[in-house]
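Methods — Computational structure assignment.
A single polypeptide chain was analysed. Its primary sequence is given first, followed by the predicted tertiary structure written as structure tokens.
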Amino acid sequence: MAEKMTRTIHESSRGPLSGEITLVTGGSRGIGRAIALRLASLGAAVAVCGRDAAALQSSEAALRATGVPVFSCIADVTRAADTERLAAETQAALGPVSILINNAGIGLFGPAHERTEQEWDRLLDTNLKGVFLVSRAVIPTMIARRKGHILNISSLAGKNTFANGGLYCASKWGLQGLSGCMAEDLREYGIRVSTVCPGSVATEFSPRTDRDLSKLLQADDVAHVVEMLVTQGAQSFVSEVQMRPLHKP
């Protein structure tokens, strides 16, 4: 009965993404929260995950205020058991995921030779392994339905190198390679894979504190690009978007 009620509520919503089930990792704050709210405004049902219970609860409340079906889940994307549970519980609550936003990520900066093995593992596991695990958990249902869109939030650090960015750049360059191969593996099933590569975004994640934050990209700028990608025509897909602020900060 609960599943039928959820479906009825969702189908009554209006918007270009009405009927879509979306999952946003790292959806409790920053870019992930902005993307989740944008998808909700387009009529999609939205699931979000994160590790901070208070931040996740706040994000869930904001999403519910939009009137679309919402599901939130504490999950660590670096753990296979968590990602499998996340996919299963999202499907039970909302339905099979049709749009996956792999947004969860962290930043650790400084000369690579000064970083520890534990820092390497933590960053690569979150930024790269996490995308692999969550995608692997939802792709089978996408293949079965021959429909889906996976958007990986990457970075211009996956295209360029810079001092003190060794670990972070390694994770994002790896994500670019993984995403490109996934796109080739999945396109025959009607599944699109795209990467969004922003420059510095004005969130607590940014390593630079000496910049004019008003000139940086904003989380809503990234959400706008995600909207463009998930509402594109059915016969094509944009494989990559690079984003830069209009004015150099």
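Note: The longest strand covers residues 191-198.
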